Amino acid sequence: MKNNSFKEIAGALKQxxxxxxxxxxxxxxxxxxxxxALYGYLKRKGYDVxxxxxxxxxxxxxxxxxxxxxxxxxxxxxxxxxxxxxADLIFSIDYNDLGRLEEATGYVRRSNGMKVLIDHHVxxxxxxxxxxxxxxxxxxxxxxxxxxxxxxxxxxxxxxxxACIYAGIITDTGSFSYSCNYPKTYEIAxxxxxxxxxxxxxxxxxxxxxxxxxxxxxxxxxxxKLVVLPGSNTAFISLSKAELEKFHHEVGDTEGVVNYxxxxxxxxxxxxxxxREGVIKISFRSKGNFSVNELSRKHFNGGGHRNAAGAYxxxxxxxxxxxxxxxxxxxxxxxxxxx
Length: 339
Ligand code: 5GP
Ligand code: MN
What we know:
The protein has 339 residues and is of the alpha/beta class. It has helices at 6-14, 29-44, 77-86, 105-110, 140-150, 159-172, 183-194, 199-207, 212-224, 241-246, 257-262, 292-300, 317-327, 332-336, and strands spanning 18-23, 48-53, 70-72, 89-93, 114-119, 130-133, 226-229, 234-239, 269-276, 279-286, 303-304, 308-313. Helix content is 40%, strand content 19%. The longest helix has 16 residues, at 29-44. β1, α2 (29-44) and β2 (48-53) form a beta-alpha-beta unit. It folds into 2 domains: 6-207, inorganic pyrophosphatase (n-terminal core); 212-336, Diaminopimelate Epimerase, Chain A, domain 1 (Roll). The chain starts with 5 loop residues before the first helix and ends with a helix. A 6-stranded parallel β-sheet has the order 3-2-1-4-5-6, sandwiched between helices. Strands 7-8-9-10-12-11 form a 6-stranded mixed β-sheet. The structure holds guanosine-5'-monophosphate and manganese (II) ion.
């Protein structure tokens, strides 16, 4: 199915009244930033709009404008189910498959509301009535910016909405270090800064608010848990439940850890394995043309982007690591290329 235009989405909005914005499980800065920017915009335009994430977002995102309106499915189940049932238009923001709503998936699937996707992940699922799915952008926040402008909302981009969009862009590009070889990303950033936001302050709010435990967990991950396989141009880190508990792990504390494994010279594939209740959460990152989206889809039933993808594994932590290491010889040629 080909993309719709933002004008078509704006047209559909005019015919619907109860709007629900949803984003993906384990929400990151782009998921929350783009959802809250869209929420702020629609609220200011007078819509009856709500915004919901499947599970809690990390505390380093709680400063965001409109955050007090963000609902969490696991924490406010009854209200979220009611809002899903009542919505006549449901936005899917920054994810490509309704399965990424976790426990909320079934409720959204059965809803008769129009389903509208705005996202930048590859291979969007088939369950959307309207979609704008573009992978050649830094972030979904950038698409929300385009949507606001193309639906004639330029004057609505004030400091609050700009801060949400800016946070989405910096978190999905690692502060303009990947997924950002697009001139337009910088043009948008320039416009946002000229709207009066303090980009340096936003950067500090997102990146310089570690707890002591979080920083020590990072230190432990790098000094004790990093495994480097130079022959496979691969590095990985695994964290057991007990290790995470030792550092009083909270949502978001391991955000960015996998990128350190990728920062080693000639390492083109990095993975982080985290043991949670009954499931192993995997994060993959890569350099250059090596697609962790494909690796993740093929072997772990996950997905994402070419250079950043995730998955869940339902075998033990050690079995998951063994499975990953056994796969590497199949990819040795592709992983050898120097980027
Ligand atoms: P992270 O490793 O930070 O959790 O995720 C990296 C990227 O892959 C993000 O864009 C995230 O939305 C996506 N992603 C993470 N887990 C999954 C998954 O299980 N399925 C799919 N389709 N995408 C995922
Ligand atoms: Mn994103």
